[in-house]
């Protein structure tokens, strides 16, 4: 029989946001327990495996060849007519910089958390929160089918896109269909990919989303698609779109599939509330994924550092209240919220654009040197050549 446990800070989920929270809470002196429902951290991989790199130092992650496959120069954006816009990695967003082995990356972050002092339990799933006096004081859990309780003054929900912890605690986490993407990805060998770039194909080839190519090595790439769930009937239709794109591109149609993964991604605005008495949400569970790119690693790690620090101080002071947790709520919002919300508004508009308009946008950006690649700057450049396109985007300019 599994024994009931007590700790200062309980982290549910050992993805990047969870491990980062656990690491920084442990470094701040808290007793930390992180639980993961799977038997192996980082596996199975459900990720395009591209990420930017300018944020790594901010959260104390050292780049390593143990988890970096390729360092790319930038991104290529392909319009529906396949006119190409090249962007250097510094301006290309949260998905471009490194292409990584995501399972190895996740394991390294868990190693860092363990080395900082956090305890880790695998094959351990939360089955419900424990509330006393309206406050979350821990969770009911199962390990290898055996039920037990874990009590902690501070509980962190880092349980990803399908997060149940927030809902159990009474935090609204529901998503509209237009705020979800259905994603499917093949790892393919024997392809002609360019290891200098991550490639993105826009338009009706992927309604409400895009097709991506993330090179893993010469001849090896992740080839995937994200499609807005409100525009398709299910994963099978997402696969049909991806297969149709591959069939039309000889560099990939000759490839061999060696891996396939699928799942959902939130492309929503961030939650209006990510804390309650005794509990904080972080990462994908708090809808911190960039709605424009679907990338969530950087945001989850940045918020995780803030969350871990606040969690440790709350546990030490004996003040795990919603009011105390406003330090986290305000902290991550100052750092991330404006861009997340602006990109959600941009996503809402982009999902309604025709292929003809996408072609004009990419055409307008040919040869334009942008100091910083933002929605605002892109639209200003487009307005100079196709002013009629930008009328409905005036709020962004």
Blueprint (SSEs and pairs):
Elements: E1 5-6, E2 9-12, H1 16-27, E3 32-35, E4 50-51, E5 68-71, E6 74-78, E7 84-88, E8 98-100, H2 102-116, E9 119-121, E10 124-132, E11 135-143, E12 146-151, E13 154-157, H3 165-169, E14 180-189, E15 197-201, E16 210-217, E17 220-228, H4 235-247, H5 250-253, E18 256-266, E19 275-276, E20 279-281, H6 297-317, H7 326-350, H8 355-364, H9 375-385
Parallel strand pairs: 1-12, 2-3, 2-13, 3-9, 6-15, 13-20
Antiparallel strand pairs: 4-8, 5-8, 6-7, 10-11, 11-12, 14-17, 14-18, 15-16, 16-17, 19-20
Helix pairs in contact: 1-2, 1-6, 6-7, 8-9
First-residue to last-residue Cα separation? 61 Å
Let me know the average pLDDT: 91
Tell me the number of strands: 20
Q: Which consecutive residue ranges, at least 5 long each, have pLDDT under 50?
A: none
> How many individual domains?
3
The largest sheet, given as strand count, sense and whether it forms a barrel, is: 7 strands, mixed
Enumerate how many helices there are, as a single number: 9
Q: CATH homologous superfamily name of the largest domain?
A: FAD/NAD(P)-binding domain
The helicity comes to 25-40%
Tell me the β content: 25-35%
The CATH architecture classification of the largest domain is 3-Layer(bba) Sandwich
> What structural class should be given to the helix and strand makeup?
alpha/beta
Radius of gyration: 21 Å
**H/E topology pattern:** EEHEEEEEEHEEEEEHEEEEHHEEEHHHH
The CATH top-level class label of the largest domain: Alpha Beta
Q: Which descriptor suits the 3D outline?
A: globular
Major β-sheet strand ordering = 7-6-15-16-17-14-18
CATH-defined fold name of the largest domain:
FAD/NAD(P)-binding domain
């Amino acid at each position: 029989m599994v024994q009931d446990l007590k700790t200062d800070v309980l982290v549910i989920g050992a993805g990047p946001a969870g491990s980062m929270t656990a690491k920084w809470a442990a470094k701040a002196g808290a007793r930390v327990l992180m639980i993961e429902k799977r038997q192996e951290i980082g596996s199975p991989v459900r990720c395009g495996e591209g990420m930017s790199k300018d944020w790594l130092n901010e959260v104390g992650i050292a780049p390593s060849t143990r988890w970096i496959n390729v360092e790319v120069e930038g991104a290529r954006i392909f319009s529906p007519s396949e006119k190409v816009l090249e962007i250097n990695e510094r301006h290309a967003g949260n998905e471009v910089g490194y292409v990584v082995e995501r399972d190895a990356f996740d394991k390294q972050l868990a190693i860092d958390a363990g080395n900082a002092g956090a305890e880790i339990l695998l094959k351990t799933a939360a089955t419900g929160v424990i509330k006393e006096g309206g406050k979350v004081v821990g969770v009911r859990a199962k390990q290898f089918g055996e039920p037990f309780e874990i009590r902690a003054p501070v509980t962190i929900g880092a349980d990803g896109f399908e997060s149940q912890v927030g809902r159990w605690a009474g935090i609204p986490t529901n998503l509209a269909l237009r705020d979800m993407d259905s994603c499917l990805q093949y790892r393919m060998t024997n392809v002609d990919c360019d290891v200098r770039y991550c490639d993105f194909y826009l338009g009706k080839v992927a309604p409400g989303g895009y097709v991506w190519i993330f090179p893993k090595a010469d001849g090896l790439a992740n080839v995937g698609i994200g499609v807005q769930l409100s525009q398709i009937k299910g994963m099978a239709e997402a696969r049909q779109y991806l297969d149709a794109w591959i069939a039309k591109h000889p560099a990939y149609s000759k490839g061999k599939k060696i891996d396939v993964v699928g799942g959902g991604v939130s492309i929503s605005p961030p939650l209006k509330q990510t804390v309650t008495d005794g509990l904080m949400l972080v990462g994908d569970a708090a809808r911190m994924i960039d709605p424009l790119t679907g990338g969530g690693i950087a945001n989850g790690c940045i918020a995780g550092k803030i969350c871990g620090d606040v969690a440790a101080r709350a546990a030490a002071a004996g003040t795990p209240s919603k009011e105390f947790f406003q330090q986290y709520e305000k902290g991550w919002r100052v750092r991330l919220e404006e861009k997340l919300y602006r990109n959600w508004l941009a996503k809402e508009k982009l999902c309604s654009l025709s292929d003809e308009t996408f072609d004009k946008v990419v055409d307008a950006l040919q040869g334009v040197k942008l100091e910083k690649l933002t929605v605002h700057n892109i639209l200003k450049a487009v307005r100079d050549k196709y002013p009629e396109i930008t009328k409905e985007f005036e709020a962004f300019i």
